[in-house]
Amino acid sequence: MPLGTTPPQTASYVTDLLSAVDRDPWGSTSPSVYETARVQTWAPWLPGRHTRWTWLFAQQHPDGLWGEGTPGHRVLPTLSTVAALLHHLAEDGDEARTLQGRHRAEAAARGLHALTTLPPHTELPDTAAIELLVPGLLGEINQLLDTLHPSDHPDLAPVLRGPRLTTLCGLPAATTAELTRWLMRRPSLPAKLHHCFEGIAAACPPALIPTAPTTLLGGSPAAAAAWLATAPPTPAHHTQRTLLEALAARYQGLLPEAAPITAFERLWVLTALERGNLLSGHEALARSWVTAILDPHGVAGVPGLEPDADDTALALHLAARLGLPHDHTVLDRFRTPTHYACYLGEDTGSTTANAHVLLALGSCLHHRPTEAPRLVPLIDTLTRWLLDHQQPDGSWTDKWHASPYYATARVTAALHSTATSRPAAAAALRSAAQWSIDTQRPDGSWGLHQPTAEESAYALQILMRSPGTTTPAPLTHLTRQPDPSHPQHPALWHDKTLYAPTAIIHAELLAAHHALTGRLDAVEQATADQTASTPPRAETVRRPFGREAAAVPLPAPGNGRRVTR
Predict the structure, then answer these.
(1) Which of these ranges, 160-174, 218-232, 544-558, has the smallest mean pLDDT?
(2) Which helix (H) or strand (E) holds 283?
(3) Bridge partners for 168 per DSSP
(4) pTM of the full predicted structure?
């Protein structure tokens, strides 16, 4: 097959993926234990209640915790599920004496015991609103425990008679009254608190309750369910209820972290495929998506959230690459003296959001060289900020993803286009590539906690962006063509808890697979050409991607979401 072409099977998978994304009004992501349990508490009327209970019970781990990731990542899903179980026991006294009621009491007891015996120095991740949601759930659980009687719940008796969990991972429990006093100091409820309204709904003064949302409140199923339970009846209730029912039907009774994620999903899918040269033949669809998403006031990844620099930047990048009208000054609202805030009022900067801004500014400069006097200083400032945030080992980390491979791949993608004119950027790329080589697992895969195809794809991207770097071993987690019909991936992305945006991950896998295949084909072609004319060079690289390990000559150089987060 000629170099630069797309294999038929890859082209077919890309077509299928884009068609599936185009048809889905909600987006494709893994269900959330936290969100599902919160909806179970706030909206017991929602169809699929039995399905949610069955699923939640199945998600409890042998150690008593719920959720994925580190013990810190599993704190919030566990608190949410325990609270849902206790609410049900408190509201349905008759069921407490049934086998099902005892099952729920026993699961809650195991969850509470697991929280009290967390490993020392367990750290909570920097996920959206965690410093508000954990204290609120602790206070909610303690209040529920005070309403239950040991004689009615023998499986919970030791917990009910014991001390309450007043502090967890350094965060103290907050009572409803304390949350109310905190809220009353505000003249209005900030829009960023809409996304976690379920954490403050019981304490929210009536004057601060959001009025008449036209989309799912804060883009959150749990927030919408809490609003329906606490807001005065209005015509907007019908809208929220209809949206929540449709979303639950989309996920077979379960609920995701946020919805609909269509703008976020389409931008990330298109960016991955465009980076991998896999959009050929799909430009019309891509232009229609980006045109619909572009907004002169900034782009929000999910309706109900505020515009953010992350989604806005990728929309601009794609618009420039696709030849669509665009105005890079829309990013000015997010600019600080040193970097770009992901959203207004942000406390901690995001390396990946700033990498996407750098990518967008570079694409705009390429499209409009006359803008250089304004864009080049911005690119220089942002490049310095990203270089200053590189870890000593060569990686980057970020608050929107649990894995440094994601953050490092995003930053190296942005720096790659500037490396030829900025020696510091080129050195950073080499350092990142060396980190990727040093952290490769013996079987050829990558993963922070376990081998994953997603992280292996990011590691490969990092390696291929550093000039002269070669893939050191076969990549066992990318040895088969990524198949979008098998969407199971570990949850590594940060919202309130961990989630996996499956369509986005598949786009990344397809792009990595295509890039690796192209690199190998180029190596083999260069080797054949070189062998025909001169003896092979001494420098070698192992054949990656599951082919037999063999030394082949290298081609010549040059051919190749706290609330305050």
Answers:
(1) 544-558
(2) helix 283-293
(3) 171
(4) 0.89
